[in-house]
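Follow-up to my earlier ticket, as requested here are the two runs.
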Amino acid sequence: MARSTSSPPSWIKPELAALVKAAPDGPGWLHEIKLDGYRMHARIEAGSVKIITRRGNDWTDKYPTIAKALVGLPTKSAYLDGELCGVLPDGRTAFNLIQNAMEHGDASLVYFVFDLLHLDGEDLTGLPLVDRKARLEKLLAGLSGPIRYSYHQIDHGPAFYKIACEHGLEGIVSKRVDDRYEPDRRSWLKTICLNREEFVVVGWSDPEGTRHRIGALLLGYYTPDDGKLIYAGRVGTGMPVAELERLYGRLLPLTVPKMPLSEPPPRGGRFGSPLVLSRVHWVRPEMVVEVSYVEMTPDGLLRHVVYLGEREDKLARDVIRSRPD
């Protein structure tokens, strides 16, 4: 049930999603399209708005257009959960558009809202999800512009997932219809159409031929038990000249003389050209990027990797995965 309170909390840790291989089925599940952007909370009170990252950082100044639109919502106070996205002409969201907006302004971005945690003095986190979404849909009814309601499908998860993949979407997120909001817990489930993941940049290789600034980014991840930084492969595809120039400017101050990896990367392998360590520039492991890939080989290297963008909302130490068996 909803509880009466005075003001929305300054920050609520977001509820998270665990990756699964198959979407759940049955009427107890609600399914949404997985959006490709930045997870953002929005806190509204007395005409003031805060846009808050998943780690609690205030990014309101980065997105003045979104903040202005949020002020116009028909409420005195609210706390929203959603995803800030760039939208392609065909309606799909694309992460690289977020990067462009951070440099050229946020007028092209859309804030898709999928949950309502607080409204006009009521704490809604204890309500079933379907009730929170009903309140949210009513709040956003009739609005146009950059604030949009994130619609859902109840039941038929596998079929919904299949349609999402057929339309070139990233995947779906599944949530129990009667669940309360559980901050900082992976109670939701995400089913992905493509393999895409965040990795830490550990260095870059020299370019060849007419390639600009960077040949490829060298990627790594931390192991969950002992915190070792493990090499995962390279990505050189998906970076236009302007992005190569931007990445070079970001990485140059991070250069270090010593390799940050816990173990040296393999010089060669069954896939791709050999890695020439004398042509590698190591960096402090602080930058996180998102990539798509076909598979990770048994020896732990990514295949057919495409760069999608930098994840300025993620910390390098949070990029954790287990080594391949």
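Run two:
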Amino acid sequence: MKRIFGFTLLILGITIYSCQTEKIDIENSEGLTEKAAQITLSEIAMESAATEVEYEVDFYANAEQTLTNLARLGKLWRWTSNLRYKFEQCPDVHILSEEGGYPKTITLNYGESTELKTGRVLSGVITVEISGPRFSPDYNRQVTYEDFGVDSLLINGNSLVTFDKGEDVFRTISSDFIFVLADGVSVNRTSERIWEWVEGMETEEDQNDDVIQITGFANAETSEGDVYKKDIVEPLIRMRDCHFIVQGIVEITINSELISSLDYGNGECNDIAILTKDGETFEVDLSKRDVKRP
């Protein structure tokens, strides 16, 4: 991943979806069951929230040397240019280590509300423990979330981030989360996803040109007793200059039965995905999280 230069803000990422809509609106959607729609839309929200916080972690973890140097001087991280967060909004960032050694612990405190310029609101504390120097054989990141809020969702749990030692553009994120959704339903969700930077690595001080590819799967069980699996069958593509995933297909199955397939498009930036069930298609408004016939 990219190095951090001084206090220059690297635009960290994008909001893919809005999670603030609590009502699921299914318009004229005969053939698509309420359960299939609910699980699909909830999965969209959870993937979005997980991806958002993983971007936060990746940025600050890669800034560890800058954070360590500031700590030695008795200073805290401060933005000189704030393009990701709204004015006067950003987390409190602290780093702790043994005389600059390892492991290092980075604490990101978002308080009761830290708002991104996209309108997404983060809250709570993330703890990141870095095992050793970057590119060392045992380098990894242990990340802990405790009642961490992403809009109307809460995340509890942990993730392990490991790196391809030969290719800096790859990392594997293994997560074990409990999500609490806006309607009070909880979801135990484990996932393993591989992130690959396919464009933008050459411009180390500018993330505007980043293109990221995501592959992997998730297994989940809801507090209502539904057990399902999500597979990314065609890689998801996200770009810095778009608020939504622009390409890729995911499939959701219950007991090996396909309940929905979601197609994010052909690379154009828009807020519409196409959901397919039993040969019937429906539009998903990613900004509002509702389903209707096209």
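The only thing I checked on run two: Helices lie at 34-62, 64-72. Let me know what else you need.
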